Structures are given as C-alpha cells and as structure tokens.
Amino acid sequence: MKLNLARDVTLTPIESGVVLLDGRRGRYWRLNESGSSILRKLLARDSTDMAAAALAASAPVSEIQARQDVTALVESLSAAKLVEVTP
To answer: Which end of the chain is more exposed for a tag (fewer CB within 10 A), N or C?
Structure first.
C-alpha cells in the first residue's frame, strides 16, 4: 500500500502531534502523537504492519489492536479525503 497526502492537504507539526489542513474545504484535523507517528511512517512508505509494530512497541496495546488502529486511521483519513491510498 502507498499512502500520500491528498492534493491541497498540508501537514503541520504541533507539540502534541500534527494538524492536517484540508485547503479545499477549510477544515482542520488534529492527530495526537500516536496518530501522527502512524501517519508519518505510512507517508515514509513503511508498511501497515511496520507501523502497527511500532505502535505496539510504544503504547500499551497488543499488535492485533495496533493493526486495527492503523487500519481505522487510514480508513478515516481516506474517507475524509485527506490521503490517497494506492496498492
């Protein structure tokens, strides 16, 4: 899977994670540190399994829960048209 920010979406680091600005709609999305870490790994071309393993290593969640969390984040960002996912 390849993940890219959608056109007109900018990512800005903040103290507690990142903010995504959808310039087309004028809406902001805030991701906490965990969500920010996952998104950055996926944008850097890490696999979803690699992102989930990193999450499980840094947070008190199982690898199964971490995989579900990564999948849910990608689905949410994709549904909001903030990212584009290609195989």
So the answer is: C
Residue extents of the structural domains in the chain: 7-80
Axis-axis angle for helices 33-43, 48-58 (nearest 10)? 150
Which pLDDT score, from 0 to 100, does residue 23 have?
94
State how far the Cα of 38 lies from the Cα of 18, in Å rounded to an integer.
11
80, two tokens: 């909001």
Rounded Cα distance, 3 and 39, in Å? 9
Chain segment 32-75, per-residue pLDDT in tens: 999 999 999 999 999 999 999 999 999 899 999 999 999 999 99
Task: Give bridge partners of residue 29 from the DSSP assignment.
Answer: 20
* C-beta separation of 38 from 58 below 8 A: no
CA distances from 83 to 46, 60, 78 (A): 15, 27, 5
